[in-house]
Amino acid sequence: MTSTGRGESLTIHNARLRGTDGLSTVAVKDGNIASIGKQQSSIEAEGGAIDARGGLVTESFVDTHLHLDKVFTLAGLGERALREYQSGEMGTAMRAIETASQVKRSQNADRMLELARRVLAMASWYGTTVVRAFADVDSKAETRGVEVLCELRDEFSGVVEVQVVAFPQDGIVREPGAADLLRAAMEAGADVVGGIPWIEHTEADMAEHVRCSFEVAETFDADVSMLLDDAGDPGLRTLETMAVEALRRGWTGRALAHHCRAMQLYPDPYFERLTALLRAAEVSVVSDPHTGPLHARVAELMDRGVNVALGQDDVSDAYYALGRSNLAEVAFLGCHLLWMMHRDGQERLYDAVTVNAARAVGLTGHSLAPGSPANLVIHRHSNVTEVLRFHEAPAAVISHGRLVDRARMAELAGVAEL
Q1: φ/ψ (deg, to 5) at 165
Q2: What is the pLDDT of residues 69-124, one digit of tens each?
Q3: Does 418 have pLDDT greater than 70?
Q4: Rounded to two decimals, what is the model's pTM?
Q5: What's the rounded Cα separation, in Å, for the pair 217 and 43?
């Protein structure tokens, strides 16, 4: 599957850009942004021409966190895990993970492929060109999910870049053979080493989980993505453990922290020390505030210079009943849940699903500037407020310099049913 375009050149006329007045013309050639001009006549149209009609043109969306191997599995599991994960202060989050793990016993690779394909097409439809996708690796799932997502990574090349995370959902220390399966998953083609140390039984085991994940990452020269402190326990400190390990191993800028919900309960003095550590280790934080009653302290992290992104996390699985891989919708929800509805907050959350998100998953040059890769969305509305208000599909999506075949994406995603 590839994106389709009218040759290798595109010109977008009547584009409104963030932070600028008036309309601009954006020229795309050979997969990159060739030039940006204020006057339509300043750039000679070459190849296909697109009239943005005054709509906002920005960098495409980047989903930093999606459990792609579990999408649309809620119906077959029931709502027990969902209730446990979202109850109160997330005191039963551990029990929810144990309940949810049962779905892996009956998962079929062909069905997983079909459902994950639908969600990737949905993500493309809504303007996402990069997804960091998690696949469980354990005694029940083995490496089946990783193999499926690697197949989809190849299938969607040129449309959605898929970074496959080998994720030991049920632990490493407490799950016999998980460390070997994690290595096998990397050998099978996974791009990123996952982790979830907070579910181990003791602090020593949590530290060993972190150490083992980084050791595998060093072996395969891979980045690390860990779900950390995802429960209502202010005593959880695995975010600190991961950041220290990243510094110790020289893995600065290559370790991504997800959830970190216990942070909401941390005392301020500890939070201040923690943010200094995160800056030193260049650890970005991904928050998914719509999927649980607690969340990382997003605005405060941003204020302290920590890179923060948002992610979809789940699509109709044991942890979140809804979702459609629409990152504008995720930012819309973030405005409410994080109390960031003022204009500056909206702009910051839009960054959290575009440029900040790209930085979090190791992408360079994800910016609306000459010479950058042409991964763009052309919105139907003229500013971020209206884009978030309606959070509807963009008018057009450009991936790797080519127009995405949105009719094909609609067919695969079943968007007529949404």
Answers
A1: -105, 125
A2: 999 998 877 777 777 777 766 667 667 677 767 676 767 899 999 999 999 999 99
A3: no
A4: 0.94
A5: 45
Torsion sign across C-alpha atoms 237, 239, 240, 244: positive
Structure tokens given for 162: 């898929």
pLDDT (tens digit per residue) in 173-190? 999 999 999 999 999 999
Mention every residue, 6+ apart, whose C-beta is less than 8 A from residue 40: 13, 14, 23, 25
DSSP category for residue 362 = T
- Please choose, from the candidates 331, 298, 295, the residue with its C-alpha nearest in 3D space to the C-alpha of residue 312: 331
Beta bridge partners of residue 284, listed in sequence order = 256
pLDDT at 4 over 60: no
Q: What is the mean pLDDT of residues 119-146?
A: 96
Q: And the tokens for 234?
A: 């202010």
CATH of domain 61-360: 3.20.20.140
- Dihedral of CA atoms 29, 33, 34, 35 in degrees, nearest 10, equals 140
- Residue 88 is predicted with a pLDDT of 65
Q: What is the pLDDT of residues 201-231, one digit of tens each?
A: 999 999 999 999 999 999 999 999 999 999 9
**pLDDT of 39 higher than 90:** no
CATH of 9-60+367-406, one of 1.10.599.10, 2.30.40.10, 1.10.3720.10, 2.40.50.840: 2.30.40.10
Q: How far apart are CA 206 and CA 240, in angstroms?
A: 11
CA pair distance 113, 147, nearest whole angstrom = 10
> Which amino acid, 287?
S
**Distance between CA 400 and CA 355 in Å, rounded?**
16
CATH 3.20.20.140 domain residues, the chain? 61-360
E strand segments, 137-171? 161-167
Pairing of strands 24-29, 402-403: unpaired
Strand order of the β-sheet with 24-29 is 32-37, 24-29, 9-15, 48-51
Under 8 Å CB-to-CB from 160, ≥6 apart: which residues? Answer: 120, 123, 124, 128, 129, 130, 131, 399
> Considering only CA atoms, which of 82, 98, 100 is closest in space to residue 90?
82
CB 145 within 8 A of CB 165: no
What six digits make up the tokens of 198? 């907070």
pLDDT for the residue numbered 90: 66
